[in-house]
Structures are given as C-alpha cells and as structure tokens.
Write a structure and sequence with these properties.
The complex is a heterotetramer. By secondary structure, chain A is mainly α. Chain A has helices at 3-35, 42-58, 63-86, 94-116, 141-163, 165-175, 177-182, 187-213, 219-234, 239-259, 264-267, 270-282, and strands spanning 131-134, 137-140. Chain C folds into 2 domains: 8-170 and 309-394, Rossmann fold; 173-301 and 399-420, 3-Layer(aba) Sandwich (Rossmann fold), CATH 3.40.50. Chain C has helices at residues 2-20, 27-30, 71-83, 104-117, 129-141, 155-158, 172-186, 200-213, 234-242, 254-266, 283-289, 315-327, 336-353, 360-367, 416-420; strands spanning 52-59, 92-99, 122-126, 146-149, 165-167, 191-197, 219-226, 247-251, 273-276, 298-301, 396-403, 406-415. In chain C, the strands form 4 sheets. Chain C has a 4-stranded parallel β-sheet with strand order 7-6-8-9, with helices on both faces. In chain C, strands 2-1-3 form a 3-stranded parallel β-sheet, with helices on both faces. Chain C is globular and about 70 Å long. The chains are: A mainly alpha, B mainly alpha, C alpha/beta, D alpha/beta. At the B-C interface, helix 1, helix 2, helix 5, helix 11 and helix 12 of B face helix 1, strand 2, helix 4 and helix 5 of C.
C-alpha cells in the first residue's frame, strides 16, 4: 500500500467521522438560527431518540418502520421540550436559556442511564456490510450511507426553507422575530416547530451514528464537542457551513492525529481549536455565517 | 423617596460596617462550630466563589462568555502543584506565581477574544477546556501525567492550635476575602465602569473614548487570574491534581454556577458556589439511583423561578419590599398616585436588571410575552 | 442601596450556612471515635459493634463514568444477602453509597462525610485512580481502612506510605504480563499494535506490557491512544491497521472495546490476533459486536462472567443471580460490573472474618495477611494472597479465547508474581 | 378594499367615527410610566397624526396599540378590544405596525418580505377563498405604488437603501390588507425628497384603499399635510387635539418644534 493510498484512506476516515459531526451540527445550527442559543442538550436528545428507536426494534418492530416512528416521536418530543422547558425562560437572558439546556443535558443523560443502563447496546446497521474499494482506498457502505443521508437531510432542509411557505415563515422568525409577530406570525409556534425539526434532524444523526459508536447514554457527548467545533467553523447560522465545517474538522483532526507526530492521537482534539481560531480571527462569523448585520 | 435616600445615606456607613462585622464574625466562628467535613465544604465554596467572581468579571460585567475557565482554574492548580512538588517552594509562594501565570495566560487569550463575539468566543474557550487535559497528560515529565500529583496541604502552625481543616479554611477565607474585595473594587474603578459601558453599548462606549480593546483584553486577564487563584487554593485544599479533575465539565459547571447564582451581582458568585457545592449532595439524597436526574431538574427549576439567578431572586424580593414601602410612602404624600401599571400587572418581569446598584436602568423593551391560545 | 446589598449578602450567607448545615452536630462531638478494650486495647472500633458494621463506598453514580456506578449495586446486593443470612460474624452490614461524579474534590468531600458524619468503619471502595489518589492521604491520616479500591493501578500495592489502602483486582501490570507471557509462548516473533486509553489504566497496562516483553522477540511496533471524551476510535484503528502488526492489544473500556472489535472485524485486509483486556472482555461488550465477529479473540480473566453460560450452573453464580433479582431488581445481573461488586464484597467478607480484633487496625492487618483465600466468585485457581511484602491480593489470571458464543479458558491459571517476580515501583 | 368583516348591525354611525377608540391608555416600561391616560378616536378611513417632542410617548402609544407592550385602559378597533393582545393577535385583527427602524427581514428578498406580510391571508379562516390570487394581485399593486421595489424584488432586503427599506416596510404592512396602519417615524433617517415621496404614497394609499392610518412623526409639517386630524403629545399626555388644519394654525405647535428643550426619557 503506497503512502498516497494511506493518506487517502485517512482522508476517507476523516470524512466518515466528519459526516457524523456534521449531522449533529446541523441540528445545533437549526436551533441557533431560531433562538440564538446553543443547545447543549442537542446531543442528548439525539441519544434519547436513538433509544426510542432501539426500544421499538427491541419490541419487534423492523428498522424501516421504527425509523419513521422515531422521527415522528422526536419531532413531537422536540416541540414538547420547547413548550415545557424553553418557553418558561423565553425572554430571559440568553445565558439563562443556555444553562437550562445544560440542566436538560444532565437530566436526559442521567434519565437514559436510569432507564436503559450504561451497558452498550448494539444498534442495527441500516446499510449493507462491506464497502467499495477504489484503488486500494476502502470506503465502507456505512460511511457512504452516512454521507448520503446527511446530504439528503441538507437537501430537504434547503427545500423546506427556500421553497415552502412554512419555510419562509421560519426564516422570517429566525431573521427578525419581532417583525414576524407584527406580521401576525405566531412566533412561539414557529419556535416549537424549529425545536421539533432540530430534534428530528438530531434523531437522524443518532440513528446514523449508533451502529458505529454503539448506543449508550454517553454516545453523543463526544460528538457534541466536535459538532460545536463544526458549527463554529462553518458559522452558526449556516446549515451548509455546519456540514462543510464537520467534514473539515473530521479530516483535519484525523490527518493531524495520524501524520503529525508531535500532535499524535491524544492532542488531535486541539487541531480543530487552532483551525477555528485561525478562521475566526479572519472571519469572526465563521466560514459561511452571515456577518453580524444589524438586527433592526 | 428622596428624603428616604438621604436617611439611608447617613446610616449607610454604619450599617455597612455592621453587616461586614456580622459576616466576619460568622465567618470566623464557623470552623469552631461545624464538623471538619462541613468546614471543608465551606472551604470549597469559598474556592469556587473566587473562580466565579472572576468569571463574573468577564461574563456578568464584560458581557463575554467563557466556557474555558476550567482551563485557567487548572492552570492555577497545576502551577501550584508543580511548584510544591518539584521545587518545594512552600504554599505562600505559589499564590502570586499562579495568579501571575494565569493573568498572562488570560492576557494571551484576551487578544483573540477581542475579535470573537458571544457564542464564538464561548465555543473557542470551550475547546481550550477540552484540549487542556490531554495536554497535561502529554507533559508527563512536569505534570505527573494521568496519575496526577499529590502535594502537601498547608499545615497549621503549632501556636495556632488549629486542626488542618480549620487552618485551610482560614487561609482560604483570607485569600478569598481579599480576592472578592479586589473584584468588587475593580468594578467600582474606572476599569469596571468602562467594562459596564462596553457591555451595555459597545459602539457608544467606543465613541465615548473607552479604549475598548484594552479593557476587554484586561477583563479576560483579570478573570483568568481569579480562576488561577481559585485553582491554586484548590491545590492547597485538596492536595491532589490530575488532568481528569479538570475536564470541560468543570468549565460548564462554573458557568452554570455563575448564572444560577446571578450574573453581574456582587454576591451571586457566593450563591452560585454554594449551589455547585451543595446541590449535588442534595440531589443524591433525593435519589440515589440517579442523582443526575434530580440535579438537572434542580438547575432547570432554579432558572424557571429565578431567570436572573438566585441573587436576582433575592434582590427582586428585596425590591418588591422596597417598592411596597415606597408605594406606601408615596400614597402618604399623595393619595391620588396609583402604582405604576407594570408593578401590579407584572410583578416579576424577568428582564428587570439584576442588580439595581450596578446596572443602569435601560430601556429593556417589552416584557416578553407568549401568546395565550 | 449599597448597605442594603451588603446586609442582604450577609443575611443570605448566614441563611445559606444555617440551612446547609441545619442538622449539624457541634464540632467537638464529632472528633470522638470509639476505642476497644481488652486484648485489642487502644484500637479503633468506630463504626463497628457486636451487632453492626458500617461501611461507606464512593462511586460515580453521575457524570461521565456512571457506567461503573453499578458496581455499588453488586456490593449492596451482596451485603443485603449476607444480612439476611446472619450477617458477617453476626454483624449486620450497613453500606452507605455516595456519589462523587468521578470528580476528585467530590470524592474528598464524600470521604470526609463518610468518616466524620457517617462514622464508617472503613471506606470500602473508592472508584477510579483520580478519586482514590485524592482521598488516600486523608484516609491514611485518619487511620481509616480503605480496602480493595476499584482501580488496577499498581501504585496501591507498590506504595509503602499508605498502609491503610490496598487494591484488589489484578493490577494492570499483572494483566499486561499475562498477555506478554501468552505471546512469548505462542508467538515469539509477534509484532504488536496497541490501542490504549490515555489515562493511568491504559498507560500502566501498556508500560507493563513493554517491560514484560523487553528482551524477547515480541515487539510493539505501533501504539495509538484515545481520550475517554473521544466519540470513537475508528481513526486510531485505521492508523494501527497500517502497521500490519500481527497482534492487536486492545486496552480499552467497554464502549471503545466494542468499537475496536467492530472496526477490526470490518477490516478484512488486516486480521491480527486480537487481545482485548479484561475490562472489555465481558459478554456485554462482545455481544453488540456480534459473536460471529469476535471469534478467536483472546483475553484474561480472574472472576466468573455472569453472562457466560459456562457458569450458569455454578452455585456461587446462581446465588448471585438470585440475590440480584431479589435485592437489586433494577440492576442487570448479566452486567460484569455487578458481578465484580459481588466478588469484591465477598472478598471483604473473608477479610472481615479473618480480623483478629474487630477494629480498624484489625481490618488493616487482615487484608495484608490473606493466605490463599478462596472466594466463590473468583475463577477456580484464583485466590487472594497478601503478605508483608505483597500488597496485591489478586495476581493470578487465566487466559481465555472466544469460541462460538462463550469464552473458553485455556492454559493454566498463571500467578504473574511467581512468573515475573514481585512488582516494584 | 376592507379589513376583516364587520359585525353588520352595530356598524352604525358611532362605529364609523370611533373606528379606533383609545380611552384612558396608560403604559410604560418596567418601573417607568410613559403614558398617563390618553383619550382619542380615529374615524374609519382617516389619517391621524400624533406629534410631539422626543420622549413624549408617541412610539409608546403605537407599541401599546399593536400589543408590543402592555397597556392599561381600553383601546378598541371596530369594537374589538386590542389591549391585552399579543402583536400576532393584533395583526389578526387587522393592525399593521411599521415600527421605528422599519423591521425589515434583512436576509429575505424583497418579494419574500412582502409575502411574509400576507402570511396571515393564506392560512386560517382566509384560506381557500381565492386568496392566493388576491395576494398575487396585491403584490402587483404594491409594486405599482413602489416601482423601485419591483426592480429589486430578488435582492436581499438588507441591501436596500433606507428609503427603499421604509417603502418595503410599508408595502409589507399593506400586504396584510390592514384595517389600521400604524407608522412610526417613517421619515427617520431619510432624505427630505424621499420622505416627501413616501408621504405622498401614504396619502394615495389612504385615499384609494380607505385604510385608517395613525402616523407618529417629528416632522409635523409633513404629517399634517396628509393627516385629517392630529394630536400633540407631551410627557405622556395629550395637550392638543383637533383637525390637521387647526393644529397647523396653532402657535403652540410651532413652539413645540422650535427648540423647546426635549425632556429626556424613554419611548421617544
């Protein structure tokens, strides 16, 4: 195996993990667009959704039936979270809302451990075993699948936002909630919708990564950190940025960990940090983020 | 109202002195009354309070969010531990070095922090907190790697007749009292006023001639210094540091503690520190099976009841009393006056400023409302 | 307003103090422990009477390491079972569990609480190297036994300044020696790739392994570490695959163990002998990967895996299963951590039985003077042995290989102490 | 063109004259009370100007009318109580507010901004009455009022000039087919020529659509030009009311705008 193939293999590996980060980053970006906050509980909600899918399958439901049911449950669950947990602190300082999501993180994590224990659970792989082999570079079908699904999710979000009236309303709320209310938009309902949507995207993320990471309550904890990095790099307002940021972070840290001896696998987590710092110093709003235009 | 203020003004110094004296007396008596482990708990409350007071400078008054203060805390703790372990310097010497090291570290991070705003700054600092533990493990020769370092705790001198926990308490009490006073004075100084101006309206402050970049950078440095001092105290009290003690969870806990205690409030950090210290134990007493469930719910519950933190809750309660008194006084003078519409229809508008003393009355816009359907 | 704020602050502080410590006792009373008379004159009897014995344990019931918290359930189930069957030497055990969230400062606080307020006889188990290291100075100062800590770092046995603290499970170096011996015997020219967790556990095991193979034909040619906060080890596995090593030493904790096993199975071009360390050898780790994917994996063990059908008829395992159902209905008996808890609690039972004096000193001496003590939950051939120059209760392990749906033990139990000599600092 | 359906029988003479009826309106922010009891009414189809110095409470009045802040007292629009409603509910009753600073959706295109204005009409009780076609027709009509917007219909609203943004804001409000149009300082920050053009269009809209308008303005001359009646607000109280012509003649108004020091305060 040549060094070039090795390199490409590592790149593929990086893209694989990057797609995982991107999927959760998408959900983070959705919430941020609507509420301007970072949802620390996003990963845990995704983990919870994955447990719902697992539970459904454990009770005999086939995967392709359990999936839509899970997505629906997550959507409703996300809306309920907004209504019951976030709404009461709406209008409070942003940090208060952020800390509420931290509380939610702790709660959901512990509750999942209480219900399902911390023993790892197998989660069925929806994609076929094996993979494709291109000139010695191997790509698993699961990696291909994750990338494909993330692309589809992004495409669907694009269609929703750009080509439907509800998407237009959602963008309006994200852009200027006060004016949206003056135009008769029920902002609180749109926010619920946004949380539901983010929870659904998160559920997709959880179901995608569970076969690779193995399901347990802390499954998404590590992913969340990288998803933060991805969203920060891409710009917290941009779904495209989240995906590009995720792939970039994945590839960069994998390559640095594998090839730069000084960094090594233990310090590779610092690579995204440095990249983010460098990017943000040039573009404080992230690669794809909107500049801080004055919000009227 | 005006005459009342005058009366208060006259008694201000007397009552302040009285309050301070009372607090000091309580603080001094505590270690002789409580069991050693309770004294230890209080000591840790003070340690966290110093860190939170530093974070408060940055977040509460500077308006910048840091999710990386655990890293500065760790830097302070490790500075002290390494000095004690490798160079046997004695405890007192570690304090100024830890403080200075973290001040410089903060200064270094304050420069990029200038360019970053809100969320982006928060997440960059978070990655710092994530990065530190593996770095500490890598520098094994100095830091002891993942096994960490065990160091001597400060021993009470023979003349004092104190037990170790009492001595630790008094030492930490002295340092934290000084630190909290410094924090308080820092805010009353020109620096503090400039910070407030920057937080409330950055561009206006700049127009007014506040040297923005300087103040923001220094806010970061001061804040990091306090975290470092707290870290140093931590090493004294616990006598053990290890990389996994300073995971990013610590940083998030610190921020959560500060917000729960109350941002931009002078005694919010104390309340927040007490929350961080005591509530996990309470959570555990309530549910041994899953303390996290209770702890998570308690955080959410506090934020529901007191969106501006526990300190806000206290001053709001105090405010309500004051308002009622003021209302009574007003109606004495003129019975025609009715209370302002807001005070009756919305006694708990969540966006009222946290600390009436430190926050200028600002047009906060409409009280948030949700649609009733 | 300033004075009001100050007053309020003082009032709030006082109120917080008083509520936080409302049920406190006065300081003086707290210091008094009880002391024995008779032959054991002057020794501490705090926490132990003729009828009761009070023990405290500190585990991560919350936070990132909560997976290990369930050990406390196995321990508690054992003591409840024993209490219902006459207690330990007629004494009923009161086992107090506290949560440290895997944070050293919390561990210190809880250790102080257990010693000072709960007045436990011994702190039976602190979990994890950081928490244990944070409290052992305090406990030794207070002369409180800290037997059988739940961490395999070798320092608990090599250290001489902390006579009140002792480990239990085979230390990581002993385990590493086991694998080294296996390779030296079976694959004397093995090229080894190592995946390890970047903490004391991973480093101790890796270091022990390197030392044990030094001078032989077995060489470590690649090593990759991961952090517990990492989402996955797939990138590390790809790097290791490049080394073309013929042995993979997999030093991971359960979730990462599953990931590594799955990654190895998926890569059809690299098929090393996969040695998985004991922590990740539970059937609960292997099953999610799929039994067909873990055939031929090698590990070493010292206690009976409750998920292994081989022990289904074993009397001790049956007692354990029944007791778990009765006393810890919410815990999964198949989880090896529960069995670990059971095994370590029954080991303590033996040590308490062996005390010459029913005192803290008695326990301290007893755990350091165990002679081939048999414990039902340990593998046949594995016993507890300690002595004046040996502070490692278990140093015997046996290799096993996964075949079909179960582990199959092979070779003889190996006393790594005899094989490699005593472990020194 | 009309607002929401009127309850047939009671829509008599009074309803026409007191189309918007404000009585005893008090409002403020937090502890600070800004309005101390306002009473006035606006007849259907009229333009009403609210004048006054900075901080008099003009903006506060509009905010209270559209539900952005809470007020006490009573405000009825065509008999329906407005106070105690949220902005979205007020919008449903036909109140369109063009806030100070215009409140455009900067990242949306001009056309999307306008479509958001008609958001309410394509759902709920309006849906399925051929409203889609009507919205398209209204869009066309707005473009006729404001030809510049048509040129820029695919451009992001944030890239428009101040005057164009103000046009867009008014256009967006009109897309709601409001019964009551609230304009807050439309001239703020605009060149005099642009302002004049804007006011002409408001006049045209008022004449053609019979939309009732309440406009808050510092530029009294401009506002009085298009207004039927006017009120002068000072320190949260009405100090003068009358027809636009009467007010214009009044010396006091001139005094207000000729450098009498403005009281500092909120809501101006």
């Amino acid at each position: 195996m040549s060094t070039l193939t090795d390199l490409l293999q590592q790149v593929v590996e990086g893209i694989g993990s990057g797609a995982v980060y991107a999927s959760l980053a998408l959900a983070l970006v959705l919430i941020h667009r609507f509420t301007g906050i970072v949802n620390f509980a996003q990963g845990e909600l995704a983990m919870l959704s994955t447990y719902v899918a697992w539970q459904l399958m454990a009770s005999g439901m086939p995967f392709w039936l359990a999936l839509p049911v899970t997505l629906a449950v997550s959507f409703v669950g996300g809306m309920l979270v907004e209504r019951l947990v976030i709404r009461p602190v709406q209008g409070a300082p942003e940090l208060t809302v952020v800390i509420v999501t931290v509380g939610l993180f702790i709660f959901v994590n512990a509750a999942a451990g209480l219900i399902w224990s911390f023993t790892v659970k197998a989660f069925p792989q929806p994609f076929p075993d094996g993979g494709i082999d291109l000139a010695g570079v191997r790509m698993d079908w699961s990696t291909v699948g994750i990338i494909g699904v993330v692309a589809v999710v992004m495409g669907l979000l694009y269609l929703l936002f750009q080509h439907t009236s509800i998407g237009l309303v959602m963008r309006a709320v994200a852009c200027n909630p006060e004016s949206a209310r003056l135009s008769g938009i029920r902002v609180s309902r749109v926010l619920m919708l946004g949380w539901g949507l983010a929870a659904t995207v998160g559920a997709v993320s959880g179901v995608l990564v569970a076969p690779v990471l193995f399901l347990e309550p802390n499954m998404m904890g590590g992913v969340l950190i990288y998803a933060f990095a991805a969203a920060t790099l891409g710009g917290f307002d941009s779904p495209v940025g989240a995906v590009v940021g995720g792939l970039f972070v994945g590839v960069a840290e994998t390559l640095a960990g594998a090839y730069v001896d000084v960094i090594g696998p233990d310090l590779k987590v610092g690579v995204p940090l440095v990249i983010i710092l460098a990017v943000l110093l040039v573009r404080p709003q992230g690669l794809f983020g909107r500049a801080a235009v004055e919000r009227a | 109202m005006r005459s009342m203020t005058a009366v208060l003004d006259r008694t201000r110094h007397g009552r302040f002195a009285l309050a301070a004296l009372l607090a000091a007396a309580v603080a001094m008596a505590v270690p002789f009354y409580f069991a050693p482990f309770q004294v230890f708990q209080l000591t840790m409350v003070l340690v966290y309070a110093v860190a939170l007071a530093g974070l408060n400078l940055l977040v509460g008054f500077g308006g910048q969010i840091s999710l990386g203060h655990g890293a500065f805390f760790a830097a302070g703790a490790y500075t002290a531990a390494i000095m004690l372990d490798r160079f046997d310097t004695g405890h007192l010497a570690t304090l100024p070095v830890a403080a200075a090291a973290c001040f410089l570290l903060g200064l270094g991070f304050g420069v990029p922090a200038l360019r970053l705003r809100g969320l982006y700054l928060a997440l960059v600092t978070l990655s710092l907190a994530v990065f530190l533990p593996p770095l500490l493990k890598r520098l094994e020769a100095v830091t002891g790697g993942s096994m960490g370092l065990t160091v001597e705790k400060p021993q009470p001198p023979a003349w004092s007749g104190l037990a170790e926990d009492q001595w630790s308490y008094f030492v930490v009490l002295a340092v934290s009292a000084v630190a909290l006073l410094v924090a308080r004075n820092l805010l009353r100084s020109r620096v503090g006023r400039a910070l407030l101006a920057v937080r409330d309206n950055e561009s206006a402050a700049e127009v007014m001639g506040v040297r923005l970049s300087l103040h923001k950078t220094f806010a970061f440095a001061w804040s990091a210094m306090f975290a470092g001092v707290a870290g140093c105290l931590y090493t004294w009290v616990i006598g053990f540091v290890s990389p996994d003690s300073f995971s990013f969870v610590l940083s998030i806990t610190l921020l959560a503690g500060l917000v729960v205690g109350g941002l931009a409030s002078l005694y919010g950090p104390l309340l927040g520190a007490a929350f961080v210290m005591y509530v996990p134990s309470v959570a555990q007493d309530l549910s041994e099976a899953a303390p996290g469930v209770v702890f998570g719910l308690l955080i959410i519950a506090v934020m529901f009841v007191a969106p501006t933190g526990l300190a806000g809750l206290a001053s709001r309660a105090g405010g309500a009393v004051a308002r009622r008194r003021a209302g009574a006084a007003a109606s004495d003078r003129s019975s025609v006056a009715e209370p302002p519409p807001e005070s009756t229809s919305e006694p708990s508008a969540p966006r009222t400023p946290v600390d009436p003393e430190s926050v200028e009355a600002e047009p906060v816009g409409a009280p948030p409302r949700t649609e009733k359907e | 307003m300033r004075n009001i704020t100050a007053l309020r602050a003082a009032a709030a502080a006082t109120a917080a103090l008083l509520t936080a410590t409302a049920c406190s006792t006065q300081r003086g009373q707290d210091d008094q422990g009880t002391v024995a008379g008779g032959t054991c004159k002057g020794q501490q009897t705090t926490g132990i009477t003729d009828k009761t014995i009070k023990l405290g344990g500190i585990y991560p019931l919350s936070g990132p390491a909560s997976a290990y918290g369930t050990i406390s359930k196995g321990v508690a189930a054992y003591f409840k079972y024993v209490n219902d069957h006459g207690g330990i030497g007629g004494r009923k055990v009161d086992f107090v569990v506290r949560d440290d969230g895997y944070q050293p400062p919390k561990a210190v606080e809880e250790a102080r609480r257990l010693v000072e307020r709960e007045k436990v006889f011994a702190v039976f188990q602190t979990l994890g190297t950081p928490s244990t290291a944070a409290v052992w100075d305090y406990l030794n100062q207070q002369k409180v036994p800290q037997p059988f800590v739940a961490t395999g770092a070798s320092v608990w046995g090599t250290d001489t300044k902390h006579p009140w603290t002792i480990g239990w499970q085979p230390n990581y170096v002993a385990e590493a020696r086991m694998y080294a011996k296996y390779l030296k015997d079976e694959k004397p020219k093995a090229k080894v790739a190592v995946l390890y967790q970047n903490d004391d556990f991973g480093k101790d095991l890796l270091g022990g392994f390197k030392k044990a193979v030094a001078g032989s034909g077995v060489k470590v040619i690649a090593e990759e570490s991961y952090e517990v906060t990492d989402p996955s080890v797939s990138a590390q596995m790809t790097s290791l695959a490049r080394s073309k090593a013929d042995v993979l030493l997999d030093v991971t904790t359960p979730k990462f163990g599953s990931q590594a096993l799955a990654a190895d199975a998926k890569n059809t071009q690299w098929n090393p002998v996969h040695i998985v360390n004991n922590v990740s050898s539970s059937a609960a780790v292997l099953k999610p990967v799929g039994f067909k994917n873990v055939q031929g994996v090698v590990s070493a063990t010292y206690f009976k895996d409750p998920a292994d059908p081989r022990w289904a008829q074993d009397p001790e395992v049956k007692t354990y299963q029944d007791a778990m159902h009765e006393y810890a209905p919410d815990a999964d008996p198949a989880n090896q951590f529960n069995a670990y808890g059971w095994a370590v609690a029954s080991s303590l039972h033996k040590a308490l039985d062996a005390m010459k004096c029913p005192t803290r000193e008695g326990l301290r001496d007893a755990v350091r003077n165990l002679r081939d003590v048999k414990v039902g939950m340990l593998l046949p051939g594995v016993t507890l042995s300690t002595g004046p120059d040996d502070a490692f209760p278990i140093e015997t392990l046996q290799l096993m290989r996964f075949k079909g749906e179960r582990w199959q033990l092979f070779g003889k139990p190996v006393d790594t102490r005899k094989e490699f000599g005593p472990l020194t600092d | 063109m009309s607002g929401p359906p009127i309850d047939g029988t009671e829509a008599g003479e009074t309803a026409e004259r007191d189309f918007l009826k404000v009585s005893g309106l008090r409002a403020g922010y937090g502890q600070a009370r800004v309005l101390h009891g306002l009473d006035f009414s606006v007849a259907r189809g009229e333009v009403c100007a609210v004048l006054g110095p900075n901080g008099a409470g003009k903006t506060t009045t509009l905010r209270a009318l559209c539900g952005m802040i809470r007020g006490r007292g009573s405000v009825t629009l065509n008999g329906a109580e407005l106070l105690g409603r949220s902005p979205e509910q007020a919008a449903r009753l036909g109140v369109a507010h063009v806030p100070e600073g215009r409140g455009t959706f900067n990242e949306l295109t001009v056309e999307e901004n306008l479509r958001i204005g008609a958001h309410l009409r394509t759902r709920g009780r309006w849906r399925g009455r051929g409203e889609r076609a009507a919205v398209a027709a209204d869009l066309e009509r707005i473009y006729e009022y404001f030809p510049k917007l048509r040129q820029r219909s695919r451009q992001a609203a944030g890239s428009l000039s101040g005057g164009e943004q103000q046009m867009l804001a008014i256009g967006r409000a009109l897309m709601l087919r409001p019964a009551l149009l609230l304009l807050d300082e439309p001239s703020l920050g605009l060149a005099p020529l642009v302002t004049r053009e804007l006011f002409e269009i408001v006049r045209t809209v008022n004449q053609e659509e019979r939309t009732t308008v309440v406009v808050v303005e510092q530029n009294a001359q401009l506002a009085l030009d298009i207004a039927h009646q006017a009120h002068v607000l000072e320190a949260g109280r009405l100090v003068l009311s009358g027809s636009a012509a009467q007010i214009r003649e009044d010396g006091q108004v001139a005094e207000v705008y000729l450098g009498v020091p403005a009281r500092s305060g909120q809501g101006g």
